[in-house]
Design goal:
The complex is a heterodimer of chains A (363) and B (197).
Chain A: H1 2-5, H2 39-55, H3 60-63, H4 67-80, H5 105-123, H6 139-169, H7 179-197, H8 218-237, H9 243-272, H10 292-295, H11 307-310, H12 326-333, H13 335-339, H14 344-348
Helix pairs in contact in A: 2-5, 4-6, 5-6, 6-7, 6-8, 7-8, 7-9, 8-9
Chain B: H1 9-13, H2 19-25, H3 29-43, H4 52-64, H5 71-90, H6 106-121, H7 130-145, H8 149-166, H9 179-196
Helix pairs in contact in B: 3-5, 5-6, 5-7, 7-8, 8-9
The chains are: A mainly alpha (363), B mainly alpha (197).
């Protein structure tokens, strides 16, 4: 809670001298590894300690906006946590041998997965809009920052998938809970912002990741949009009893409209160019030949230069994408979101007070 | 209910005889059993803060007592209430069937239990206990689920202070605790740690 509320911890790390729990009560199996009803809690503890070691030091303030530092921390996260899961809690291919012996393990697994993916996403949170001139110092950094955006959006999508599975395993319904609605709100807000700020290629040029793959992947974008849509759909089902879900749906309405409008414009543009041969991709220009337009670092135009031609002329779309007010929208309406620790924006914004007098959301 | 204060001189001379009074703060035994069972089966998996075997041993003993003399008895009664409240929040929907066990509307029952818990909670115990830390932990859960984040943060700080008072942040090498008790102490501390972060 201290991390997402932006407060100092109540339990200082250097003041504690107590061992971890032993994980030896109600043992389901001791070979080849210990599995008990408390195993997942130990993994939560371990994950929390790794994240604390990354985010608590003062260096995180600068590290979080540095693409190279974030890459280093992400690798450390993967090696320390994701690669070390015991088989029953493996993130991709879990061993379900003991599921019958421990019936709650299915929801424990999804709860842990959702938490891990959400924390992994939070490492990359500063790259919601990697094309901001605050972040980009060079072409190499632009590539890395753009790939962090993709990683961030994908991690949000994975989180949402786990949350939906968890909700279904728990029997559905509209429980009055904290974890599912709150995590849905944070991840869908981040994902929606990524979808708005994702850039399309300019005149045949494409951004390449370090692995040589084009960033602009329409299938991926569709997948991410589907995740965004599913997250909001699940959140809406929780509004009957959850004040958090009620506020979340209300707050995310404007973001949802912006994202849908962008996706619709993208689909129209795609449809009008389906028979055109795209020009062969050009290599990424040297830094010396870059200008502000290519980087998108200069102030984007407030409105598209020609909205009537936008749908019919792929090549003349400018770098800011379409609709061009994505960056403006983000700055004006979501400024607090971008600056605050992960979830404190949701609770600190006085305009969106959570209370019994809050109007019920009607879709 | 007469306000109980740790500085109340009468309290030092007479044993607390709140047996009937404490029971009046809880729902009927059948309802409590139903909600506690639901909690252990459907809610406890998330934090594993309650060790079922040890809890039920104490639970049945508590109900069999004619009186509740100690602070821990009151705190355990509070813990029962907190678990019932968390169960009510975790029911899949407001009209979830309870096989006729709960005949009141669930929202009204929740409000009633919350009010009773508030009444019992004014009795701050003289001595901290694991039970107190546990009931505060579940009070935090309840408040977070209810989107009362600021209040949950304050209660979490109370829970941490109680844990500090108990020395949960240190390996208990001097106390006469058996291995099981030490393990429970560690689990309670580290669950608080996760929530604090």
């Amino acid at each position: 809670m201290s991390t997402f509320l932006g407060r100092w911890p109540l339990i200082p790390d250097n003041y504690c001298d107590v061992r971890l729990p032993k994980n030896n009560l109600q043992t389901i199996t001791a070979h080849p590894y210990h599995l008990t009803p408390f195993t997942d809690r130990l993994l939560h503890i371990h994950t929390t300690r790794v994240m604390t070691a990354i985010m608590v030091p003062p260096s995180w303030k600068t590290d979080k906006t540095c693409p190279e530092s974030v890459l280093r921390h992400a690798k450390h996260f993967q090696e320390s946590i994701q690669d070390c899961m015991p088989p029953a809690f493996n993130l991709k291919t879990p061993d379900m041998t003991w599921d019958a012996a421990l019936p709650s393990i299915a929801q424990k697994r999804e709860h842990l997965k959702a938490n891990i993916y959400a924390l992994f996403a939070s490492l990359h949170r500063s790259f919601i809009n990697p094309y901001s001139d605050k972040l980009i110092k060079s072409t190499a950094q632009l590539e890395l920052a753009a790939s962090h955006q993709i990683t961030l959006a994908s991690a949000c999508s994975d989180t949402i998938t786990s949350l939906i599975r968890l909700h279904n395993i728990m029997g559905g319904g509209d429980r009055q809970a904290f974890f599912i609605p709150m995590t849905l709100i944070e991840t869908s807000a981040v994902l929606g912002m990524c979808l708005l700020s994702m850039r399309r290629p300019v005149k045949g040029a494409q951004y390449y990741s370090a692995a040589g793959e084009a960033h602009w992947d329409l299938d991926m974008q569709q997948r991410l949009y589907n995740s965004f849509h599913k997250a909001l759909a699940l959140l809406s089902t929780l509004t009957e009893r959850s004040k958090i879900a009620q506020k979340g749906v209300r707050v995310l309405q404007s973001l949802k409209r912006k994202v849908e409008s962008r996706i619709a414009a993208e689909n129209d543009s795609r449809a009008s160019h389906v028979n055109r041969e795209f020009p062969a991709p050009l290599p990424i220009p040297d830094e010396a030949t870059l200008d502000d337009e290519w980087l998108g670092c200069a102030s984007p135009p407030l409105v598209p230069e020609s909205t009537s031609n936008q749908e019919n002329d792929f090549e003349t779309n400018n770098l800011a994408g379409f609709p061009n007010d994505g960056a403006e929208y983000m700055e004006s309406e979501w400024a607090a979101f971008a600056c605050s620790p992960d979830q404190s924006w949701f609770f600190s914004d006085d305009l969106f007070s959570v209370g019994i007098e809050s109007p019920r959301v009607i879709n | 209910m007469r306000r109980i204060s740790s500085h109340d001189p009468d309290r030092l001379l007479q044993p607390l005889n709140l047996g009937n009074d404490i029971a009046k703060h809880l729902p009927k035994r059948l309802v409590t059993d139903c909600l506690i069972q639901f909690f252990i089966q459907e809610v406890n998996w998330m934090y594993e803060m309650i060790y079922p075997a040890a809890f039920f041993e104490k639970y049945y003993l508590w109900w069999s007592q004619p009186n509740h003399y100690t602070d821990d008895d009151v705190q355990f009664g509070l813990l029962i209430l907190r678990l019932c409240l968390n169960s009510l929040q975790a029911l899949p929907h407001r009209n979830h069937p309870t096989d006729g066990v709960i005949d009141a509307p669930l929202a009204a029952l929740e409000r009633g239990l919350h009010a009773e818990a508030c009444k019992l909670d004014i009795c701050r115990p003289r001595v901290s206990s694991i039970t107190r830390v546990q009931q505060l932990f579940f009070h935090v859960c309840y408040l977070k689920n209810n989107a009362e984040i600021k209040d949950s943060w304050f209660v979490l700080s109370d829970a941490v202070k109680e844990a500090h008072e108990l020395g949960l942040h240190l390996d208990d090498t001097t106390a006469n605790s058996n291995e099981f008790e030490l393990e429970i102490r560690r689990r309670v501390f580290w669950n608080l740690y996760i929530w604090d972060r």
